[in-house]
Every structure is written in C-alpha cells, then in structure tokens.
C-alpha cells in the first residue's frame, strides 16, 4: 500500500476503539506496561483525537505502533499487511549486540555479514533506537533493539540514505543503501520460510546434531522427531534452537527428549476461557482478588519413558529463540535435562488473543503471562544458558561457530 493511501475516519476510530476495548478485556502484562489499566479511558480520548488527524495508512500505522508500544509486550502487536516502508526494505538486517550493531543477512555486494554499523543516514543505530523506542512493543532491551532493526526502514525519509560501517580490515567505509521493493522482500521471506529441520552426525555414532529453525508449521517438529529416532543410539545430541522464533509448542518432541518427569510453566490470565484453551480441563485457581486465574505448574510425564532418548542433550539458544521455542527450552533448564549454551532467549511467550480488524489488519494481545515453575519472572527476562557464549564478528567473517565448538569441547 502506498504511503499516501488513506483510511476513512470511521475505519480509524473503529480500529482504535476495538484495540483499547480488547486490551482492557484480555491484556495481562500490566506490570511491564507504560500505560496503566486505569489510564485506558483517557488514552482512548487522546488517541481518538490523534487518529482524526492521521488519514494516511502510513501515519495511522505509526500511531497504532505508538499505542501498542506503550504496553511493552512481545506478544501484543498491531499489523497491517498492506503497509510497506516509504522507500523500500533494507537489503540487510541491522543486528544488535550488547553495545554495537553489525550487518546480518546481507544482499548488498558492498556489505558483508559481520561488518560493524557505525551510522545510517548520519545517525548511530543507538540514536535511532532511542528515537523510535515508543513504537516498540517489547520489554527486554536486546529484544527491543531487534525490533528496532526490523522497523527502522519505516522511519527513513531520505530516498538515498548512506550507511557508514567498518569492514573486516578495520577500514571505515560509506555506501548508499540499495532498497528492496515489496516483491524482492517477499521473495527473500519466502526463501527463508522454505528452510527445514536438518540433522547430521558430527561424530559418527557418538554426537548427532539437529537444527530446528522454527515451530511455525508441524513439519519442523515432525522432522525433528524422525531425526531423534534416527540418532537414538547417539551418546550425545545437540539440538540447535538459535533463530527459532516459535510457533506451536512441540509437546511430542519434548516428550521424546525428556527422560524424567518435568514441570510446565505457571501461567496467569485475566479470563478462565484462555486457560481452558491452553490447558483443557486442568485445574485452575484464582488470586485472592479474583483478578486473575492461575494454572500450573503442572507435573508432566512423558507418554513413553521407555522410548525417550536417554543420551546427553545440549541445547543451543540465542537472543532470537522465543515463544514456543522458549516453551520447549524451559523444562530442560528447570529439570536439569542437559546443558544449555548460547545467549539469553528473547523473553516472551504466551497465547495471544487475535482480533480481526478487517482488510488485512489485525491485533494480537498478550492474554497469558508466564512464570517459571517456582514463580520467578520470565517475561522480559528470558531463559539464561548454563554457559554464556556469543558469536563474534570474527566468527561471522570466518564462518566459524564458537557456540557449537563449546558444545563439542564439553563432549570430548
């Protein structure tokens, strides 16, 4: 949809009113939100006034991002499939690290994965991040920066912006950013979505490796299960969840890899109906003020302990490991089934309530708040690995993997 396409006033007010009405009904992450539940009536009035002035798809989308950003939750979001950046999409991904940003997944012949980004359109990335922070609906700092990198192309007004970066030799360079149009961007997304779960022997009959890039479709879990059976005689199994942003929690795979009883999350929701959707007829309780319903932690027993994989397990995680992939990781951490290596995970899971706003527009609302089985906070924190290892620029340039190497060193 072009930047100057318009929404009617009726459409804009409907979207604002439905968003706030459903937030009030389903949202459960108020302790992280910049907006309090008591402020919703006044927020409604002010956003009605601003919506009356935001006629274009582009301006109204930014307004909705600002509204949703105030709730600071990774599973609460607004989308409009028709909206595209004003000039196009980046042909690379700005990837945040603790204090810097580097190039990832470059489709630009001048940019190499691992190059250190100094500035875009004259501004350091952290300055851009601070400037667009109000539009980002996540709590954890690194997760917010990930979203900022994904959203930045929507905020660049210059048609010919410049990227300044440092290459592998330490030389500072500048180049014009070459935009991807919507069709080119979709082709890249389609290519990424065609990836599959893969496995191989690293050390024949001793160490097997399975990479699971997503749980968005059942085929990822199904292939992982097939590979676990294929490698059932392996002494050790490395399961790589880096970059896995979730999908559907892979309960069958979890059962196959767990060789013991384990506990589920403890979940909280404002409505019993969402607990029943998630847990069926499992028992629920109410907080003293009846504001929230609670379910779990529930003791889980693998369906067939005899068939469970009995060897040593190592999980690899990173800052992109999120949602259902965190659901999968948590029991290994809490029940000490294996060793977890890598970075802290994304820090957001739960079952969003989806609201159809018409014409390819919609809303997801974080309707379940998850806690570790002992009651510790998870949202906005994530799961910490047992051994913290991050890929460096040198790893990227040299195409080495210090995280896998750490796992192999442990297994020697």
CATH-assigned homologous superfamily of the domain at 196-261 and 301-347 and 382-411: 2-enoyl-CoA Hydratase, Chain A, domain 1
Output the number of helix runs. Answer: 12
Tell me the CATH architecture of the domain at 196-261 and 301-347 and 382-411: Alpha-Beta Complex
Low-confidence stretches: none
Largest beta-sheet characterization: 6 strands, mixed
Beta-strand segment tally: 20
What is the end-to-end distance? 55 Å
> What integer value in Å does the Rg equal?
22 Å
Task: Please state the structural category.
Answer: alpha+beta
* Strand adjacency order, main sheet: 7-8-9-15-16-20
So what's the CATH class of the domain at 196-261 and 301-347 and 382-411?
Answer: Alpha Beta
What does this structure look like?
By secondary structure, the protein is of the alpha+beta class. Among the domains are: 93-179, Pdz3 Domain, CATH 2.30.42.10; 196-261 and 301-347 and 382-411, 2-enoyl-CoA Hydratase, Chain A, domain 1, CATH 3.90.226.10. It contains 12 helices and 20 strands. It has helices at residues 9-26, 40-53, 57-69, 125-132, 141-151, 182-193, 218-230, 251-257, 272-279, 324-334, 393-398, 402-411, and strands at residues 77-80, 93-96, 101-104, 116-120, 162-166, 172-176, 198-203, 207-211, 236-240, 262-263, 266-269, 285-286, 293-295, 299-300, 312-317, 339-342, 352-358, 361-366, 368-371, 387-388. Strand 8 (207-211), helix 7 (218-230) and strand 9 form a beta-alpha-beta unit. The termini are far apart. The model has no long low-confidence stretch (mean pLDDT 93).
């Amino acid at each position: 949809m072009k930047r100057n396409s318009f929404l009617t006033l009726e459409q804009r007010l409907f979207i604002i009113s439905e968003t706030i009405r459903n937030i009030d009904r389903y949202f459960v992450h108020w302790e992280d939100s910049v907006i309090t539940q008591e402020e919703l009536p006044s927020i409604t009035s002010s956003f009605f006034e601003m919506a009356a002035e935001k006629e274009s798809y582009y301006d109204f989308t930014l307004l909705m991002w600002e509204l949703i950003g105030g709730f600071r939750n990774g599973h609460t979001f607004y989308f409009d499939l028709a909206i595209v950046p004003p000039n196009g999409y980046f042909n690379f991904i700005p990837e945040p690290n603790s204090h810097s940003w580097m190039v990832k997944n470059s489709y630009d012949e001048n940019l190499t994965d691992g190059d250190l980004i100094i500035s875009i359109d004259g501004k350091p990335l952290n300055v851009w991040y601070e400037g667009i922070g109000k539009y980002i609906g996540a709590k954890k700092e690194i997760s917010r920066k990930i979203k900022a990198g994904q959203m930045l192309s929507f905020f660049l007004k210059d048609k010919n912006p410049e990227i300044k970066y440092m290459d592998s030799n330490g030389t500072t360079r500048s180049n014009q950013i070459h935009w991807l149009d919507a069709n080119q961007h979709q082709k890249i997304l389609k290519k990424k979505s065609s990836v599959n779960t893969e496995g191989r022997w690293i050390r024949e009959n001793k160490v097997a490796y399975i990479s699971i890039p997503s749980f968005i479709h059942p085929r990822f879990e199904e292939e992982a299960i097939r590979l676990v059976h294929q490698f059932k005689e392996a002494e050790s199994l490395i399961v790589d969840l880096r970059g896995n942003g979730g999908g559907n929690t892979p309960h069958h795979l979890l059962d196959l890899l767990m060789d013991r009883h384990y506990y589920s999350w403890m979940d909280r929701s404002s409505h019993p109906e969402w607990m029943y959707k998630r847990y069926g007829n499992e028992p629920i309780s109410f907080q003293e003020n009846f504001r929230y319903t609670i379910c779990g932690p529930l003791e889980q027993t693998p369906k067939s302990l005899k068939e469970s994989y009995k060897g040593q397990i190592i999980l690899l995680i990173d800052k992109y490991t999120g949602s259902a992939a965190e659901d999968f990781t948590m029991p290994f951490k809490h029940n000490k089934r294996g060793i977890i290596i890598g970075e802290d995970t994304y820090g957001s899971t739960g079952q969003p309530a989806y609201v159809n706003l018409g014409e390819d527009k919609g809303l997801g609302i974080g309707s379940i708040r998850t806690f570790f089985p002992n009651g510790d906070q998870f949202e906005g924190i994530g799961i910490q690995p047992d051994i913290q290892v991050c890929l460096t620029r040198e790893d990227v340039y040299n195409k080495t993997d210090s995280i896998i190497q750490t796992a192999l060193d442990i297994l020697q």
